[in-house]
Predict the 3D structure of the following.
Amino acid sequence: MKPNLLRLALAATLICGAIALTSVAQPPPPGGAEPQTPTAGLAGDVVDFKLLLPLLPEAPAGWKADAPEGSTEDLGEMKLTNVHRDYQKDQTGDAPTTAISILDSAANPEYVESTTSAWDADTSDLEGYSKKLNIEGMPGFETFENDGKHGSLWLLVAKRYFLQIETSGQDPKELQEWLKRIDVKKLAAIK
């Protein structure tokens, strides 16, 4: 797993969704005036990344963790807050890895709706599975690819925070074990 690519992919997903939502022209109002661009992305303020960094857990026994990273960016039409931490099993060779990211999507409720609507499918075959989740009333989605033992768990916390856990070289049950290390209730309380 390439940690920088994971962070870029997560940020790109949000940015592309927001751009698509903000670039759709509205129909002209009565009287024939020019179409207006919607103000998607201005619905709410994101929290400062420093509030989310403490929620990224320390490495469990036998693992090491990189320093947590984060940023809060104002991109004009929208704001983004993202925090991230990478973990690696303390062994030589092809060691199992985990990456945990939290993205505050309060500034773009349309992105939340479009992303979570794609989480309604359950599939399973010889290559792996994908399934919708509901954890304590929070919607989520989990995928696992047998090749490389690559897993991904997404959870929408407090209708604004996308929590993502990515694993490689681990069994599917480890996604839930990593989730248990994160204080989801504390995350939900941050406003």
